[in-house]
Amino acid sequence: MTEKRIFSSAVECERAFYGAFVERDFDAMNEIWATDHVTCIHPGSTTILSSRDEVMSAWRGILSADDVPDVRIVLLARESGRDTTVHIVREEISGPDGIVMATAYATNVYRREADSWRMAAHHGSIGPSPTKKPARRSLH
Predict the structure, then answer these.
(1) Of 2, 37, 106, 140, which is least packed with CB atoms within 10 Å of its CB?
(2) Could you tell me the maximum CA-CA distance found in the chain, to the nearest angstrom?
(3) DSSP character for 68?
(4) Alpha-carbon torsion 132, 63, 28, 7, what sign?
(5) Domains (range + CATH), the chain
(6) pTM of the model
């Protein structure tokens, strides 16, 4: 049996989470999630996924799609304890041209399990539409 990857911090686990998403790597995504007591709500969804099997089944479907966009995150807030860390992030979602086409906000909860940090919850919410920067005007 292959050993699961070890994440020494919640930040490292979060980087791996978004990396697995962008790379469409289901095996990597599977390593990131905690072994039990997980919850996931995807942006725009009305379904609360509350078992590891449900969460991983949803990720398998998402990661197998042809049009998985690029995602850049901006950390907005962090609360850390000894065994649990909560990150509030803005997800900037861009298309192949690199232009941000949507934003979402997410609460990501990480829990220390044995010798590694794992994702315990991800709750994404659709954010406001990105605004285009106004064109520069010349004074002359």
Answers:
(1) 140
(2) 70
(3) P
(4) positive
(5) 10-126 (3.10.450.50)
(6) 0.86
pLDDT, tens only, 18-65:
999 989 999 999 999 999 999 999 888 889 999 999 999 999 999 998
H-helix or E-strand containing 74? Answer: strand 70-80
Quick check: 92 and 71 in contact, CB under 8 A?
yes
**C-alpha neighbours within 13 Å on the C-beta side of residue 16:** 23
pLDDT tens readout for residues 8-17: 999 999 999 9
* 35: amino acid identity, one letter: T
Nearest alpha carbon to residue 92 among 101, 79, 83:
101
- Determine contact, residues 2/99, Cβ cutoff 8 Å: no
